[in-house]
Every structure is written in C-alpha cells, then in structure tokens.
Amino acid sequence: MAREKIISNYIKKLLKQDNLQDTKIKILNIGCGPGRSSEYLSQFGEVVSIEYDKFCCEFASEKTGLEIINGSITELPFDDNVFDLVCAFDVIEHVEDDQLAVSEMKRVAKNNGLLFITVPAFMSLWSHHDVINHHFRRYRLAEVKNLFSFKKDGKMIFSSYFNTLLFLPIFLFRQLSNLLQSGEKRTGSGSDFEAFKPGILNSILYRIMYFESNFINRHIRLPFGVSIMYTWKKNNQNE
C-alpha cells in the first residue's frame, strides 16, 4: 500500500536524522485499527498498540497475534516520558477534544521524543466517507500547527499535505457525490473507489501516491492534498 510505504520511508529518514536508525526504539501506535500499522512499525523497534474500539481491538489481536490495549488517546494508560516515537495515523479527526489528544501524546513521549500524525485535509473534501467513519473535522496545516504550538514545549520537524496528485479528481468526485446524494442515505464504506474493481486501478493509484514519497523524503512541502502529515519533537523550545 502506497500510504504505508510513504510513512515507513519517512520514519526511516526521521530516525536517521536523530541517529536512532540502529537503536531499538519504543513506539506507541495509537488507533492501530486492524493492526497492520503496528506490524510495519515493528521494523523500527518495540511497538505498543492501543485501540479505542473494543471489537476492533479484539479482532486485531486475534488477526495479528499482537497484544493490543483497549484505551483512549485522551486518557493514555502510560506514565510520562515513556516512548521515543508516538504515532497516530488518521486518529485525531475522530476525537472531539483534539487538543487534549495531542497533549496526551506529548505527555507520554520522552524528552526529545518524536510525534508523528496524519489527518484528513480540507473541509471542502467532507463527504459520506467522513460521516461513516465518525470524523469531527478535516484540517488545514495551520490548524494542525496550532494544536501542537498550544504550549512552547517542542518544535515542528516537518509538515506537508500529501496525496496531492489525486486531490483534484477526489475533490470533483466528492462534490458531485455530495450533490447527487443530497437528502439520501448512502450505504457502504465511504471509499471514493468502492464502486471500482481492484486490479489495474489499484496499481495506478499506488504508483501515483508513492511518487510523492520522493518529495516528502526531501522535506519538500506539497501545497495541498487529501491528507496532512505532521512531525514534531518534544522539548525543543523554538516552536
């Protein structure tokens, strides 16, 4: 999956910058869902996984064999200053009090620990996908930065939109879908491509998304996109 590759490649770069590439770091993966993100994060160190949905937690544990803790990002069941890397991939948008969620992530990170989040971008892309997945909001980069700069307790490492090349077709598809589905209850997962069969389309989408990894790994910020990635380091005072 292209998203997984983009995140994995960027974490490799992030750890290399901090001279942690040869260290078995302690990682917290918040909102691990079915567990795949915990599996690929394990290449970087010891992963502790937490999932809010109890059914999903049990399913992921059974599927992956990993120990997954049932808990909330707004009340993390860990002491202060425990983890080298705290991740929350597409989680913050599910939380009404997103400021508290970020504060909890900061609390459990070690001094000089890293935080890495992804969130969906732009309310103009709001659609059935967001409703069915119980999102409270979509973000702009400035709004994410404000969440992290609430206290002067660290600094941003890198921020960017991504899934940029697919932004225009997804925007047009969602606008048209919202217009056509107005007043109707839509069923299904909410995916923009649920009507298409897998195969060649998946291969094309993979190549388009993975191409963006070349920019992100060079810290080249993309000006817009369907999603946002944001990395932050604790205890550097110049936010």
TrEMBL record:
<dbReference type="InterPro" id="IPR013216">
    <property type="entry name" value="Methyltransf_11"/>
</dbReference>
<protein>
    <submittedName>
        <fullName>Methylase involved in ubiquinone/menaquinone biosynthesis</fullName>
    </submittedName>
</protein>
<keyword id="KW-0489">Methyltransferase</keyword>
<feature type="transmembrane region" description="Helical">
    <location>
        <begin position="114"/>
        <end position="136"/>
    </location>
</feature>
<keyword id="KW-0808">Transferase</keyword>
<dbReference type="Pfam" id="PF08241">
    <property type="entry name" value="Methyltransf_11"/>
</dbReference>
<keyword id="KW-1133">Transmembrane helix</keyword>
<dbReference type="GO" id="GO:0032259">
    <property type="term" value="P:methylation"/>
</dbReference>
<keyword id="KW-0472">Membrane</keyword>
<feature type="transmembrane region" description="Helical">
    <location>
        <begin position="156"/>
        <end position="176"/>
    </location>
</feature>
<dbReference type="GO" id="GO:0008757">
    <property type="term" value="F:S-adenosylmethionine-dependent methyltransferase activity"/>
</dbReference>
<dbReference type="InterPro" id="IPR029063">
    <property type="entry name" value="SAM-dependent_MTases_sf"/>
</dbReference>
<feature type="domain" description="Methyltransferase type 11">
    <location>
        <begin position="28"/>
        <end position="117"/>
    </location>
</feature>
<keyword id="KW-0949">S-adenosyl-L-methionine</keyword>
<keyword id="KW-0830">Ubiquinone</keyword>
<keyword id="KW-0812">Transmembrane</keyword>
